[in-house]
Amino acid sequence: MRRSLILGGVWVIGFPELALAAEGAPTAGSWIGPFTVIAAGLGMAIAAGLCGLGQGRAVAAAVEAMARQPGAAARIQLAMIIGLALIESLAIYTLVIALILLFGKGISFA
Amino acid sequence: MEAIEHPPIFHLPGIPDHVTYTWLSMIILTSVAFAASRNVRLVPRGLQNFLEVVLEQVLGLIDDVIGHNGRRYLPLIATLGLFILTGNLMSLVPGLVGPTGNLNTTAACALIVFVSYHWIGVRKQGALKYLKHFTGPVPWWLKPLMFVIEIISHLARPLSLSLRLFGNMTGGHILLAVIFFLMGFDGLIGWALEGSAAGVVIGGIGGLVTTVFTVGFLYPLKILVSFLQAFIFMMLTMLYISLAIEEAEHH
Q1: Residue A90 lies in a domain
Q2: How many domains in chain A?
Q3: Backbone angles phi, psi at A107, to 5 degrees
Q4: Residues of chain A contacting B, Cβ within 8 Å
Q5: Does the residue A84 lie in any domain?
Q6: Which residues of chain A lie closer than 8 angstroms to B172, CB-CB?
Q7: Which residues of A touch B1 (CB under 8 A)?
Q8: Neighbours of B109 (CB within 10 A)
């Protein structure tokens, strides 16, 4: 099952022009287009997942600290929010790159 | 991206939309400030009271991050924060365009921060001494390497400031646009209004669910993100200014 999935993925990644050939009329070298869509989706998925892991660790540590020292809760919350925004911005960079890949008009490798 | 975004309600010919709506947010902020400070009272009431509370929060943050001598940078920091907050909230009003949803506006704000914290640092400790602090506390043979690394990290700051704000806003807009597209008269609700039995059941339930999801979750989330991003921008500006002026005391 898993091997067939991997083989299918390799087949799609390796030969996207074959998948398109049935729908007809891709111009020569236009396989860049499918690759950008794959790259945008995969990159965003990896970035979102790892960003979730990082944010989860940060929030867990902050909540633990707040439970131990309720007096310092406000300052811990401030630091946590700043940290969360900084972690999240890493995923946002990937989002920007995905948007450039999907909507950027200036990319023409072909 | 232009295909799924609706056009704004008014459009000045020859001028990009984000510039028009930057002017609109400037008009809003200026008129609010003018109305609040027209007759300033010792015991504030109404709008003056509200703005004083907001600015005192910013002052408290500055005292926490920079220290008491950072209060002179309040105009820069609070103006950036209020402008970005207004821009973020304007993008949530249907028919308006958020100026912060465009990379040009956020890059302009980030460049202002970049230039001004270097200027503040140079003014505070002199050009040569300020440049010396780029090398950091390392042995002399490491200093050229550290200098290059620090230059790169400083150049990455405006990039990350602008891209963070732009990406957060634009990502939210695309999410809202896709949900509205799915929900609207071309999507689920349109299917329900067509009249077929499956359309009424599935489209009706789906339209209801997406409406509740949008109103109950996505819009509050976007409002939270708007406040949070303006806050983060102010916070990082304070942090950069404090790093630029604080190093004088350590060495």
Answers
A1: yes
A2: 1
A3: -85, 115
A4: 81-82, 85-86, 88-89, 92-93, 95-96, 99, 103
A5: yes
A6: none
A7: 99, 103
A8: 22
Mutate to test the interface with A, among B160, B161, B173, B242 (most CBs of A within 10 A): B160
Q: Which residue type does B23 have?
A: W
Mean pLDDT, rounded, for B8-34: 87
pLDDT in tens, A14-46: 544 444 444 444 455 677 778 888 999 999 999
Segment B220-226 shows an average pLDDT of 92
Q: CB of B235 within 8 Å of any CB in chain A? A: yes
Q: Token pair for residue B39?
A: 């007759």
Where in the sequence is the domain holding A85, given as residue range(s)?
39-103
Residues of chain A contacting B65 with CB distance shorter than 8 Å: none
ipTM over 0.85: no
- Strand, helix or coil for residue B51: helix
Structural tokens at position B193: 């209004």
pTM of the predicted model as reported, rounded to 2 decimal places: 0.80
So what's the pLDDT on residue A4? 54
Cα distance from B238 to chain A (closest Cα, Å)? 12
Spatial CB neighbours of A1, under 8 Å, sequence gap ≥ 6: none
Answer with the residue of higher pLDDT: A62 or A5.
A62
Is the separation of the CB atoms in B212 and B183 below 8 Å? no
